[in-house]
Amino acid sequence: xxxxxxxxxxxxxxxxxxxxYVRGCRQGKLTVTPCAKHAxxxxxxxxxxxxxxxxxxxxxxxxxxxxxxxxATFLYTKQETPTSLEAVHAxxxxxxxxxxxxxxxxxxxxxEYDDGSYGPVVLRLSWHASxxxxxxxxxxxxxxxxxxxxxxxxxxxxxxxxxxRDFLEPVKKMFPWISYSDLWTLAGVTAVQELGGPTVPxxxxxxxxxxxxxxxxxxxxxxxxxxSHLRDIFYRMGFDDREIVALSGAHALGRxxxxxxxxxxxxxxxxxxxxxxxxRLLVEEDxxxxxxxxxxxxxxxxxxxxxxxxxxxxLVEDAGFRPHVERYAKDSDVFFQEFADAxxxxxxxxxxxxxxxxxxxxxxRSD
Length: 367
Ligand code: HEM
Hints:
Destroys radicals which are normally produced within the cells and which are toxic to biological systems. By secondary structure, the protein is mainly alpha-helical.
């Protein structure tokens, strides 16, 4: 059964009166809905009985036309049509769960990539799509998915994210009704949950934009810089110190790649499992400047196989950030909760949702 028919029949069960308007409109022709038929009948009945057959036909057509347009005007002025249409066209939570399931299936199946999962790079895609938000101008954010286009796709910070975008392309083909911007953010949620992280409620409503909406380079953080840069970047999005630290805990996942950013290596020993290890290692391990040809980064004294970026080190060095690093290092549950809250906020920056957000959905994890 097609998506439309499924949603239409669901809507019909839930709200029979609304559903019939929508079916009439959906067929894309002047289908006379029961309501309009009723109005047309009224128009025909008022036609003088002495009129010729031709006149009657014209009068019927005119009456039917007026009735249909009257019904449309009524529906428009009552704002019934858009609402009803959306109610039926809007995919349900069940439909988005299918998207989630497909992303989860591909994450499990395509385990040859990097440390065995596309999850980290998919999570990074969702963050870089959202982290361009500027609260002062209302520009940027996940709405638009403008990283599909140059120049944004070529911004230094986004190098390598083509892997995540390509990974998600078959999902977009399978579910063409979902916007890229909803897909990328939902895929980020899927990655977090499927790699053992917290439950992240999510809601749809993002619309794709064209290349004119690309944000200027420089809105994402520069890993070579210090605490004041981190604050400049994240305060611009509307985050505070606690949220900056919580979000940075995503570096428990994945690794840096020399051919993308110049940095190299994973932050912990389980880069495909979402944990609070990033914070524990930051606090408990001794970090030394790595001696190499690449940009300044840190390496753990014990094994010399892990890495920290200068911005990661800023989290333990700065008096405003450090208490949160210590809290998260001690208590994984607190980190999970505060990461989830900040990540929900990140994914929704600048998105013109309708409603108050009470309709966020929680998706079931795969078995
Ligand atoms: C605080 C400022 C941040 C800086 C300066 C930063 C910088 C970086 C850099 C340089 C990399 C290496 C990319 C590569 O070479 O492939 C990286 C990877 C990553 N970042 Fe961040 N990041 C920051 C915050 C975040 C946030 C807020 C998230 C998510 C909520 C995040 C998620 C990730 C993930 C998952 C990876 C691994 C990607 C992979 O394995 O391909 N980062 N980040």
